[in-house]
Structure formats: structure tokens, C-alpha cells
Amino acid sequence: xxxAQVPLDExxxxxxxxxxxxxxxxxxxxxRKEDRCFVPYKPxxxxxxxxxVEEFLEHARFITEDLEWLLALPHDKFWCxxxxxxxxxxxxxxxxxxxxxGLDLATLPASPAVADMQRSVHRAVxxxxxRMATYKESKENFLTPAVFGEIIYNNFLFDIPKILDLCVLxxxxxxxxxxxxxxxIFTQQPSYYSDLDETVPTxxxxxxxxxxxxxxxxxxxxxxxxxxLNAHKPTAMTMNQQDLVDLILYLCDSxxxxxxxxxxxxxxxxxxxxxxxxxxxxxxxxxxxPDLEKAVRKRNFDDKGLQEDLWKRLSHSCRKMVETAxxxxxxxxxxxxxxxxxxxxxxxxxxxxxxxxxxxxKRFLSDYDEHFPIADDVSLLQQALPVIDETRTSYxxxxxxxxxxxxxxxxxxxxxxxxxxxxxxxxxxxAGGAAAAASSGGFKLKxxxxxxxxxxxxxAKAMLDVPRKGxxxxxxxxxxxxxxxxxxxxxxxxxxxxxxxVLACLEEYDYNSELxxxxxxxxxxxxxxxxxxxxxxxxxxxxxxDVLSIRSNVFDDDxxxxxxxxxxxxxxxxxxxxxxxxAREMLNDKQHIAEQKARYQAYETxxxxxxxxxxxSAATFGLDDDYDDEYDDTYDMNQVxxxxxxxxxxxxxxxxxxxxxxxxxxxxxxxxxxEDDEEEETLPNNVNRDQFVQDPALLRERAEARRAAMQQRKxxxxxxxxxxxxxxxxxxxxxxxxxDRRKKEANKSRVSNxxxxxxxxRKRNKGMIPS
Length: 771
What we know:
This protein is mainly α. The protein is built from 29 helices and four strands.
């Protein structure tokens, strides 16, 4: 038996051998391992066929029973099984590798039995890793910390990839437990820090791989070999559809895992920061994200559900990359400034340098500023360090506004305020953390709202990701799959609650499941929620009418309306210019001549007289029966001119008038009207004046009068005459004379031959005249 108050690694146990003799062994020895085979984990079936579902349930039941048996073992037996049983490690590794992630919830079958079994396996795996990361369970059961670090490191019980998977699978709802777990592992075995430093370049290689698959040139010092000029690599628009799907899934999984690890274990931010991870991340974001968004929006997908899923995953990846950049800046630059330690000015300078480097990455800068306003960080710096150059900060903020304009987006009036997640409830110890793990199911529970794209990223995006509204009119910031996950998590812990009541609580507390569970258990709900029936069912979702049934268009029910016609005459539809007959065939076609032949045959024979036999009519020969050849006497009764007067009777009705040219000069002249103005002028008696040519002096006088009147109407002031002579010398000159002399001196070169000396000096300066 193990001795009390002695570490397990120093304990000795006495057991019976094969021949019945007692012998002493170390407490950690392969012989003490139980013979038990742990089966590997397989994910839930996607199609949900009864056979596969039954196979999964049986397989998962074996894993759950084996892990519960392992957790029930005493301290020494547990560590013997963990250290020396390879099948256990294969089982745990298979779960970390194949377990569904947060966005994979929509692909799981809707069977309640499958969901319950998945949660059971998830809980058992988490508790197993939690016990493996604890070197002291009680005063009697513990390991030496140094020996514990060697055991987990040398036997590969934990490594960096496993820790990354643990963060992404169990992070939601267990962040504090995972933080203590990982911190304990890194504290007892510092070699994991060196492993992390070697892992960061591999993570950076992920970005280079995605860039290479998209046919984009890698940037930075770690770029791969130069690209050949004749190399034609597929782009996101031209690659195979399955390759595009795999690429986006790879990007989503990588970015989610990195963010979960840095969020739970902030001490790792310094390792990532030392390798220039932030600059590589922003450059990768600016280069890759617009290309992938364009491919998802503009490519034709047979399955629209697949297109929506890809857009959701791509938006999720963008959000996680922005949040990862914020984590790196916060823990490496902002946190030391807030703590008020030494070298605050150095950290502030480094933060400003990072923000300045973001100015060239317009798309990344606008997305980062939308979620984490840079103006708030700058204001914080100015409060903590008043010596910060205001010109530099103004330039930085102006660059942020320019980034918003360059991407064609408008900066929201109220920036998004990220709420601090509530602390873990006090009752969550080890068992409580496991219960939270079971409730979370390892899936993504809550995400921030989707970033608004330009409104580009707004036509297709608005179609694919329309915000939904809750019962109280508030916009639901989570997707349908994530909302179902939240409901199932809360219902598993509190099955007596109705779905309608749970939905109301989620909407009230911003879809934070931890806060909802905590307030329900502690009976601290808001007053409006206390009045609701806790068994309230889920409201029936109103289905929107079909768009095609309510649309109105001028082309409805025409021959090309494919929405109401199953078949369309494709012979009337062609692309480009329609191919007709050739010119030679058109000229050789004489069909129109045959059509006109019968018409012109009617004009071949001219008949002067047609004899109509008795019994025949004129219509037989195409003649008009109504033709009348008699004299037209319609107007014979009107005696035109018969009653007119003879002789000069016309002169009696109109008096004789003497022509003007023959009139005598002693008669008064008629009034004469001019073109420009009307004047009445009476000629004196007995004066014969030739009116053919008027007096030129009179014409000039009239023209001058008209010009003066026009200038007076337009407010024109005549130019003052120049006076350069002035008064005699010694009497002084007035201001007008000085101005006229200066004007003459400045403008005299326009006429005559002035400025000769000036032009000669100019030629000499240019070397045209030898000096």
C-alpha cells in the first residue's frame, strides 16, 4: 500500500508475484497497469442514417464507460494507466482531432440521443485531461512538481497541438479552469515555452500556404521561393469548388484555434509577438480576405446553403483575426501601460508604431477600428502619458478616417462596445467546471455580430446573413445554429424551463448563456423576466411570403417569364449577334420576284374598249359600274359676273389715291419710323430734300446717343482719360497722375521698341552674347 505524505513518484508498493511471492515495486510501474482497450473516437454521422447512428451511439458508450472507469481509479492506479496505456492516449488524441468544433454544429444530426451521447463523451474527456493536468489531488495523493513536469513532457501527455485543441474545444464555459490547467503545465515544465517558440513559425507557415493556394504573392521575410513568370497558379475564382471549401474551412479552423489559445493563455502572446506575428497577420488579412470574399460572392454555387455556410465561416475567420490582433496589442503593449510599470513610454511608442503600420492595410484597419476603436486607445495613452506628441496622434486618427473612406464604408456613430464576460459562478469548482463543459458541448456559443462590409461586401452579404429579430424586437446577433446550441445547453442543465422563457432570457442578457444560467440559479432575473411563465413555449415562427408570389413586374407572364413558365422557346434566345444568311445566298434568292409577278401581269395588255355581252357586269372586267360620262351642270344656275356694274363702277367704290412719289412738296409729310427709334420730324414748307442719303453727322449723333443710353442701363463707367503730364514741377502731383505714370511705365513695352536694355541683359545672362 502507498505510504501517506509521500509523493507518488517515491512510493513503493508490495504485491504478490506470479508465483505467489510478495515483491516490492515502485508505485508507477507498467505491471500495475490494467489490461483495458480504449477504442478511438469517431465523429457523429452527417447523414443520420439509423445504422450509422446506432454504431456511433454504441461506440461513444464504450468510450464513456471506459473514461468513467478511469476517473474512478485511485490516484496511483490512474497515473499508471495514463502513463503506460497507449490505447488511452490514442483515444484522447482521436477525440481532439475529430470532435466537432463550434461552427460544425449545423452539420450534426438532430437526434437527441446523438446530442446527449456527444455531451457525455465531451464531459468525460474534459475531466480526464483536467485530472491529468493536476499533480496534487489531496494531501495524501500528489506528485512532486518537478517529476510531474517530466512525466507529462517525456510521455507526451500534453504538447502544444493538444493544448491548442483543448482551448478551442473546451474554452467556452471553462476558460478559467483551462487557464489554470495550462498555466500549471507551463509552470511545472518550462520546456513548453521553447516548444511554443518553435511552433509559432509553423503557424506562420499556415498563412503562406493559404496565400500560395490562392495564387497570391507571399509578403515578408519568410516568403517562399520566388514565383516563376510562366507559372499559372489557380486563384480563388478559378480553383475547384471543393478546394475553395477546404481552404475556407482550413482558414476558419486555424484562426479560431489561435484566438482561443491566446484568449485563454495570454502569457503566450509574448512568444507570438516576438516572431512578428502581428505584422504577418495584418498583411495576410489585407491580401487574402478581399480575394476570398469576392470568390464566395461571385462564384456560382449549386447549393445556396453551402454558399451561406462559407460566407459565415469566412466572416467568423475575419472576426477572429481582428480579435487576435487586439489580444496581442493589449497584452504586449496596453496592459503594461495600464499597470503603470516601468518603461511605459517604450510600450506606448511600440503601440503607436503598430497603429502607424496599420495605415497601409486599409481594409484591416477599418475592420479593427469598427470592433476596437483606435481613438479610445489613443485617448487612454494621452491620459496615461501626457508627453505623447499630439501631432502624431492627429495624423494617426486622420489615417483611420481615410481608411474608412478608401474602403467605401461609413464609420458608425456609436462604436461597438465589447462587454466584459461575467466571471465564473462561485459554485463552479472541478465538478462545476465539468458541468459547464457538458453544457457547452465544446461548441461555439456566442459570437460578436458580423462585420458590416461595403457595402461590399453589402449586396451579397445582406442576402446571405440577414440579422434576425427576437420577440422583443431586438436584433439577434447569433446565427440559427448558435441559437439552437445555446438553447440546448441551457435546457440540459435546466430541463423544466420552456424554450420561450429561455429565449427571452437570452435576449435580455445579450445571448450570454453563462450569465443566464447564473441568474436563474441564483434567482436574480430582471423584473420583466420574473413576470413570465417559466414553462412558456417557443413562439411559432411566422413564415415570410414567397417573393415571387408578391412581386410585380412589367414582364410578368410574357413568353420569357421563367418563374411562371416551365418551358421557353430557346430558338428566340441567342447570345451576341444572330447569325443570318450569307450575302451571296440573299442575292441569289429570287422568291420576291415570283411574289410580284402576278401583280405586274395585270399591266401587260392595254384594251381601249371592252365589249360587255348581255348578262355580264363591269365588275367582271374590273370596271366601275358607277362611271358617268355626261356634262356636269352643277354650277350652271350661278350667274358669275352677270350682275356686275359696267364701266368704271369699281372706281366709285374705291377713291383714287395719288402715289406718294407724285405728291407735291407743299403737302405735309407722313410720319416716318426708323428701325432703332421713332422720331417725328416735320419738314419746313417749300423745301425739297433728298431723303435717299441722310446726314452722316446726324447718324453719328444718333449712334452716340444710343450707345450712351445702353451704357447707362448696364451701369458702365467710361474709362478715365490718362493724364501723365500733371502740374508744373515743384507744385506736387495728385494720386491720379502718379497712377497714370506708373501704368504707362509698366505697359509701354507693348508698343514701340522699349525694354532694350533689359532684354539685352537677359540674352547676356543666357550666354547668347559674349561678355
